[in-house]
TrEMBL record:
Family under the similarity heading: Belongs to the argininosuccinate synthase family. Type 1 subfamily.
Domain of life per record: Bacteria
The encoding gene: argG
GO MF annotation, one: ATP binding
Main location: cytoplasm
Keywords, in A-Z order: Amino-acid biosynthesis, Arginine biosynthesis, ATP-binding, Cytoplasm, Ligase, Nucleotide-binding
Residues binding ATP: A9, Y10, S11, G12, G13, L14, D15, T16, S17, G118
Oligomeric and partner information: Homotetramer.
Name of the protein described by the UniProt record: Argininosuccinate synthase
Gene3D superfamilies in the record: Argininosuccinate synthetase, chain A, domain 2, HUPs, Single helix bin
Organism whose genome encodes this protein: Collinsella acetigenes
Binding of L-aspartate, residues: T120, N124, D125
Catalytic activity: L-citrulline + L-aspartate + ATP = 2-(N(omega)-L-arginino)succinate + AMP + diphosphate + H(+)
Subcellular location per the Swiss-Prot or TrEMBL entry: Cytoplasm
Amino acid sequence: MSKEKVVLAYSGGLDTSVCVKWLQTEKNLDVICVCGNVGQEETDLEKKRQKALSLGVLDCKVLDLRDEFSDEYLTHAIAANSMYENKYPLLSALSRPLLAAKLVEVAHEYGATYVAHGCTGKGNDQVRFEAGVLALDPDLKVIAPVREWDLKCRPDEVAYAHEHGIPVPEGANDNPYSIDDNLWGRAIECGHMEDPWNEPLDDAWTMTKSPENTPDTPTYVEIGFEAGKPVSIDGEQMKLSELIIKLNKIAGDNGFGRLDLVEDRLVGLKSRECYEVPAALTLLQAHKALEDLTVEGDVLRAKFALEQQWATTVYNGKWFSPLKAALDAFMDETQKFVTGTVRLKFFKGNLTIVGRKSPYSLYDYGLATYDRDTTFDEKSAAGFIYLDTLSLKTWSKVQGPGSGIA
């Protein structure tokens, strides 16, 4: 009798390699692995595939998702100026729904009953994977081995791996950090940084140089946008995934893109997190600057509130939800005329917007200038102020400070 099948989100690391054996031995399931490249640092996916096959899986699907991640996910994040709690550009929350979608696709392909992931019960990613899977196919069942097994810490996992013949790299217990990365940046937690008073050590940062070690002269960059999407650097057209890679290098070499913050996790606890997001922060700041020039003021003010809702919705794993779809429709409408060029200045860990232009600019020099040739009729301001303050004056006479009531 054939076994039931499970599709596992496989990174090739210790956790998911142990998950393979645990699913095989404890759940008696045939395992199919899915390894998606969303731009993470370790891109030797063929080695990971061979490692999975050596563990006896039915198959290991290696998928290059960098362009799909950029064009279908990061473009929405840029349109929404996504900053969770107004301080951090979503990172893992943007890649998890794409990976969840691929788990569902492969489960359908192989007739699998289950999908599985290697997330802990304390983090956000368990929710993102499972919400994504269940939104796309509510009949699939989800297994989370790390929430079920009795392996309490990394040394326990290493011992389990040795016991079951799973290859373990030398020094597997030595890495103090938990890292997650993709094209949009890099998340660093655990180790020395679990005390929020401790300054991150130099070895935590790999994408960005210390500002002290950056060039002594500014670096200028021009980013071109079409309908809200970044399309060029210094006039050179390129696809978004390549543009992000190039901008990560430029901004990182100038020491820009480090974040050290405490965020509120979905599961109810506060977590100290460090992020390296040089391209993400750069593109969001540039995009906002171009929106200031091209999007009408009332729309901008309404958009700001909805941006926070967009970021929270995605952070909480609701990428595939009616609310997210409705928010995207609003964001898409606002991007029609966000076309133009933004000039940036990097220097010693800082980024400054120093220029912006657009064929759809709503900035009217004649109205804005204080020179003699202004087209703004200042005399009309008196009537505006009279009407704008009419309600305030009425209140003051009857109920407010000017009412004379003791």
